[in-house]
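hiii so um. not sure if this is the right channel but i have a protein structure encoded as tokens and i wanna go backwards to a sequence. like what aa goes where. can anyone help
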């Protein structure tokens, strides 16, 4: 390999998402093998690894950690392995002489010549601007004093350390308050929620109560058969199936708003909101749920849940949902309203905690109180796409399907 090879962010892995370089798994000068994980990219949905396109040495980091990148962007470059150099393990690099001046003096001392500054890459210029540094504050370690991405990151650390001394507390520290920096995923979830609720769609929520007796009876009968097939029959599978019937009755729930028309999806791609603990929330998608029976839905759910738990979801698993279910009752919530719509969808179903409640029933012309397993279900709609009577028709169909399950 005589020429540099670009390490590119694959468009098919991050299409439709915002992406940020989270962590480089190699440093400049280290050998790397073809298909070996090289850099971690965090999107607003999942973390993906970009592998090396060939054997060689990491010659340059173009996109530093913490920098936003677009699909197809060059992340770094590979160079040839020197003669006699091993293809595994770090390359020995002679340590640079430590400066004798203080950290603050070193940070402020002019280090780069005008000629060196003129040879800076676009990534270095952008990183300098983002970190509030001038070129003459950075000691260039590249050929002829050229400033590299690593030089900028090191200089920023020196400046921050010098300014912070002698205090050991981080900026804005308060006694008794623990600071938890935002992750890129948390920042993007927050932005997505604010955009959906405050700037995009007028949210309206209706609330129904659902008697789950018929579903629990059916589940008890089917569960052994499903277990023999290696499938977990969860209540969410029933919710998905009932949503399919409700969407067929009210297609607008499976649509989206545009400036000149409402677009209705023929296929029902059902998103299932899934919590990742402290890391946030993702919505993997069951493709073409309308074509699946209960067993097919249960199988698709089992695969998605397993991938989520093993942190193996890909951006492809999360793209293209047309409707979303949030089963927030699994963590004890009775009612959540409004559940923020997952734009550009037009509706999201919420399912609350299943619990035994006293219910009035009429038997033989007489009212009596019985105990039934019930839960509250909500539908939050984009009022531009659906009106109240459509939302109620959706919920009536959904609840009737579950209460009359056979």
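sure thing!! here u go:
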């Amino acid at each position: 390999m005589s020429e540099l090879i670009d390490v590119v962010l694959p468009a098919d892995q991050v299409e439709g998402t915002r992406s940020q370089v989270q962590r480089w798994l190699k440093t400049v000068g280290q050998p790397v093998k073809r298909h070996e994980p090289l850099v971690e990219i965090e999107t607003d949905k999942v973390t993906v690894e970009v592998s090396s396109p060939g054997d060689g040495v990491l010659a340059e980091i173009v996109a530093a950690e913490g920098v936003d990148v677009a699909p197809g962007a060059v992340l770094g470059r590979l160079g040839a392995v020197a003669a006699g150099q091993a293809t595994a393990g770090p390359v020995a690099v002679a340590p640079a002489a430590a400066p004798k001046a203080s950290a603050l003096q070193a940070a402020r001392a002019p280090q780069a010549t005008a000629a060196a500054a003129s040879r800076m890459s676009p990534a270095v210029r952008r990183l300098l601007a983002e970190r509030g540094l001038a070129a003459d504050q950075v000691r260039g370690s590249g050929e002829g004093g050229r400033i590299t991405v690593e030089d900028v990151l090191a200089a920023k650390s020196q400046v921050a350390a010098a300014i912070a001394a002698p205090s050991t507390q981080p900026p804005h520290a308060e006694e008794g308050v623990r600071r938890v920096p935002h992750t890129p995923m948390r920042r993007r979830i927050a932005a997505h929620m604010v955009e959906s609720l405050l700037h995009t769609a007028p949210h309206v929520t209706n609330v129904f109560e659902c008697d789950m007796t018929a579903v629990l009876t059916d589940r008890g009968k089917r569960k052994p058969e499903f277990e023999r097939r290696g499938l977990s029959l969860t209540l969410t599978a029933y919710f998905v199936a009932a949503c399919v019937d409700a969407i067929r009755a009210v297609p607008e729930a499976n649509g989206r708003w545009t400036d000149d028309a409402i677009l209705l999806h023929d296929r029902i791609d059902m998103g299932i909101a899934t919590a990742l603990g402290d890391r946030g929330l993702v919505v993997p998608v069951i493709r073409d749920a309308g074509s699946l029976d209960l067993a097919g839905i249960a199988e698709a759910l089992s695969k998605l849940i397993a991938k989520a738990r093993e942190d193996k979801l890909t951006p492809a698993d999360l793209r293209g949902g047309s409707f979303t279910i949030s089963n927030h009752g699994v963590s004890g919530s009775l009612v959540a309203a409004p559940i923020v719509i997952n734009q550009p969808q037009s509706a999201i179903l919420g399912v609350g905690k299943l619990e035994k409640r006293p219910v009035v029933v009429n038997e033989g012309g007489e009212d009596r109180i019985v105990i039934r397993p019930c839960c509250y279900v909500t539908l939050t709609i984009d009022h531009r796409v659906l009106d109240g009577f459509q939302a109620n028709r959706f919920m009536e169909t959904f609840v009737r399907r579950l209460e009359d399950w056979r």
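oh and Residues 186-403 form a domain with the Chloramphenicol Acetyltransferase fold (CATH 3.30.559.10).
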